[in-house]
Amino acid sequence: MYMYAGVQALGTTEAETEKTSTSKPLVTIVVPTYNEAENIGRLIREITKSMENSGYKDNFEILVVDDDSPDGTCLEVRRLAEKDRRIRCLLRRNKKGLATAILRGIHWARGEYVVVMDADFQHPPEVVPKLVETAIRTGADIVVASRYTRGGGVSGWSRLRLLMSKTAILIARILVPGARSTSDPMSGFFLVRKSVVEEEKLNPRGYKILMEMLEKLSYSKVVDVPYVFRNRLAGKSKLGARTIIDFLIHALQLSPMTRFATIGLLGALANLIVMSLLLILGVNKYLASLAGIEAGILFNFVFHEAWTFKTKLKGNWKERLVKYHLASAGGTSTTFLTMALLTSLAGFSAVAAQAAGIAAGFALNYALSLTKIWSRKVRATVKTGRV
Ligand code: GDD
Ligand code: MN
C-alpha cells in the first residue's frame, strides 16, 4: 500500500555512524503534501539550510508524505532525494487526508523527535531548529509553534479570520482539557517526541491532530515557541469551510463533557426507573427518591470509570466511589429538595419532580467530578517568551 522513494536508510554503515555521531538527537521533519510541487523544493532547501546552520548534518531527515498529488509533488521530492539521502517521499496511492498522512509520517520517522509542518511556508523553516532546541533544553515531550504566545502572530489576516481562529481555540479549551496546555492547540506546526506517540490511541479521522495528541497521549511537558504565521507562498489551501464543522465534531468527540453528559442522561433514566418501580411497589416517595438517586450514582460511577474518565483513573476505585458520593452530595441534595418542594408546594407528580431535580443537580455534579475526582495527571506547562 505504501511506497518509498528516495533513501532507505540513514547512516547504515558503522564507519558512517562513527563519523556523524554527535550529541544531537536524530530529528525527522514530516511534511504532509497535496499539490505542493511549487513549494516543496524550496521548502526542503530551506529546512536543510536552517538545520545545517544549527549544527545538524546527518542527524536529520525530511519525510514528505504525499497523497499522490497530480502536480507531481512526490516526483519533485524524489529528484532531490537522488542527491540527498536525508530526503524521503512516502507516496500513498489513495488520498486519505491530512491527519492520516501526519500519523503515517510519524510512524515511519526514524527521529527521536518529529517535527510536523505545512509545505507552503506558512510555517517558517527557520523555526524548526528552535523547536528542537527547546525540546532538548526543557525536556518537553511536545513543543508547539504558537501564533498566540508573546512574540508570535499572524500576518495578513482579516479581523474576522483572527476572531474565528481565537473562537475555535476558546471552544477547544472549554471542551478538551488537553488543549489547555498550549496557547495554540490548533497549530499544524509542532514537535513531538516519537516515544510518546501511542498510535493505537489516536483516531486518524480526527482532523486537528495536535489537539487529539494533547488530549489522548501521556506526556510530561508542553512548551510553546512563538512564530509568525505567514501567507501561503504558492498554491491554494486544501482545507475549506467544512473544516470548521469537522473541528466542532472532533472537539465534541474528544471532550469528556460529551461522555459525561451521555452517561449522566442514562444515569438519570436509571434513577427515574428505579424510583418508579419502587413507587409502584408502594414505597414512600421520599425513600423511593433516595433509592433512585443512589441507583443513578452507582450507574454513573461504573460508566464514568469504564468510559468517561477511563484514561484518568488513579488510586483506588473504592476511594473514588466514596469521593464520587461526596462530590455528588450537592447534586443529590438538590434533586431531593427539588423533589420534595415541587411535590408538596407545586403539586408535581413525584417522578416529574425528581426529573426536574436531576436537571438542577447536573451542572454542579459535572464541575465537581471534573475538578475533584477525575482530574488529569499532573502536567507542567512552560511558556517561553521570545526565542
Ligand atoms: N498528504 C496530504 N493529504 N497532505 C495534505 C492533505 C491531504 O489530504 N491536505 C492538505 N495537505 C497538506 C498541504 O499540502 C499542506 O502542506 C498541509 O497539509 C496543510 O494544508 P493547507 O491546505 O496548507 O492547510 P491550511 O493552511 O488551511 O491550514 C493549516 O493551518 C491551520 C492553522 O490555521 C494547517 O497547518 C492546519 O493543520 C492548521 O490548523
Ligand atoms: Mn497551509
> How many structural domains are formed by the residues?
2
Oligomer: single chain
Euclidean distance between termini CA atoms:
41 Å
Looking at the structure, the CATH topology of the largest domain is Spore Coat Polysaccharide Biosynthesis Protein SpsA, Chain A
Unreliable stretches (pLDDT < 50, length at least 5) are: 1-21, 378-387
Query: Mean pLDDT score, rounded?
Result: 88
Query: Class by helix and strand content?
Result: alpha/beta
Helix % is 40-55%
- Strand order within the widest beta sheet: 1-4-3-2-5-8-6-9-11
Categorize the overall geometry.
elongated
Count of DSSP H/I helices: 12
Q: Which compounds are bound in this model?
A: guanosine-5'-diphosphate-alpha-D-mannose, manganese (II) ion
CATH class of the largest domain: Alpha Beta
Q: Can you say what the CATH homologous superfamily of the largest domain is?
A: Spore Coat Polysaccharide Biosynthesis Protein SpsA, Chain A
The secondary-structure element order is EHEHEHEHEHEEHEHEEHHHHHE
Task: Characterize the main sheet.
Answer: 9 strands, mixed
